[in-house]
Write a structure and sequence with these properties.
By secondary structure, the chain is α+β, with helices and mostly antiparallel strands. Helix content is about 40%, strand content about 20%. Strands 1-2-3-4 form a 4-stranded antiparallel beta sheet, covered by helices on one side. Strand 3 and strand 4 form a beta hairpin. Helix 2 crosses helix 3. It is built from 3 helices and 4 strands; from the N terminus they run E-E-E-E-H-H-H. The chain has 2 domains: about 55 residues, no CATH class; about 50 residues, no CATH class.
Length: about 120
C-alpha cells in the first residue's frame, strides 16, 4: 500500500514494466494512465493525469467520477449470504445494514486512532 500516490482526492497505483513506471488512477471506472522513467517523473505524470482527467470531464460537460463513492459489490459464499440474511431478518434490518456494520467493524479493528490502516499509513 505504500506505493499509492495521492492528488486532489484521487489515488494512483503503479508498477514497473520494462524499466518504466506505469500507473493508473484507482477507484474509478474511467481508465486514466500515466508513466515516468523516474519516481519524480511518475509523480509529475500522476498529478498531470488527474488534472487532465478533471479538465476533460469539464470540457465534456460531465461530472468526474469520485473515487470510492461508497458502494461496491461483495461476493461471499452462499452459506455466509444465508447467515447474514437470517441475522438481518432477526434484527429487522436490511442485509445492507448488517454488511455495512460488519465492514465498519473490520475497518475499525484494522485502523489506528486517525483512521489510517495500521499496516501502513497512506
Amino acid at each position: 500500500m505504500a506505493d499509492l500516490l495521492k492528488h486532489k482526492g484521487y489515488l494512483g497505483s503503479f508498477e514497473i514494466e520494462d524499466g518504466v513506471l506505469i500507473g493508473k488512477l484507482e477507484g474509478i471506472r474511467d481508465l486514466v494512465t500515466f508513466e515516468g522513467e523516474t519516481p519524480t517523473e511518475l509523480l509529475e505524470a500522476f498529478a498531470e493525469a488527474v488534472e487532465d482527467y478533471l479538465a476533460e470531464c469539464e470540457r465534456a460537460g460531465r461530472e468526474p467520477e469520485k473515487p470510492f463513492k461508497g458502494s461496491f459489490n461483495v461476493r461471499v459464499s452462499s452459506g455466509t449470504h444465508r447467515k447474514l440474511y437470517y441475522i438481518a431478518r432477526k434484527r429487522n434490518v436490511a442485509l445492507n445494514h448488517v454488511t455495512k456494520e460488519a465492514v465498519e467493524d473490520y475497518v475499525r479493528r484494522h485502523s489506528d486512532e486517525t483512521g489510517q490502516p495500521v499496516e501502513n499509513h497512506l
